[in-house]
Amino acid sequence: MALVRQLVPDDAEALRMLRLEALESHPEAFGSSHAEESARSVDAFAAWTTGGFIAGGFVDNQLDAMAGLSIPRTAKQMHKGMLWGVYVRECRRGSGLAEAVMDVVLEHAGTRVEQVHLSVAAANERAINLYRRLGFQPYGTEPRALMVNGIYIDELLMVKFLSR
């Protein structure tokens, strides 16, 4: 049985390990690199849990999925949130854990923002299908959004308007 909840500072080590796994397994899916993130301390990851909202999906007390939401602090942009760091361990893909984690993030977002934005590698059809099922709509493509190992990655930009 899966448990999904907001991550807290005590989850920092598990968060760090899952994040590093994500960056190593799928470097094309994230703006940060494994080298950059592996240099961060566990305390830095603990600070992430208090500085924003990160939901974690646990199976058998192991953190197997995560998704974060950041909200700009500028008055003109506080109506929108940005989804980041979505990752599900490969052994849990297709289990519904991604949807469960996203539901918690979107429920939290619904109390704070009017819309949620995300960017996803344009070739990542599985993730794009998940986001579409959750009500996200594409509104553009950023060409050459990332460069990973000398290869450009285009990103699809998506938004979900929340009823507030």
TrEMBL record:
UniProt GO MF annotations: acyltransferase activity, transferring groups other than amino-acyl groups
All copies of the N-acetyltransferase domain together span 2-163
Q: Which domain of life is it from?
A: Bacteria
Question: Which of UniProt's keywords are assigned here?
Answer: Plasmid, Transferase
Q: Keyword Secreted on this protein? A: no
> What is the protein named?
GNAT family N-acetyltransferase
Q: What is the lineage of its organism?
A: Bacteria, Pseudomonadati, Pseudomonadota, Alphaproteobacteria, Rhodospirillales
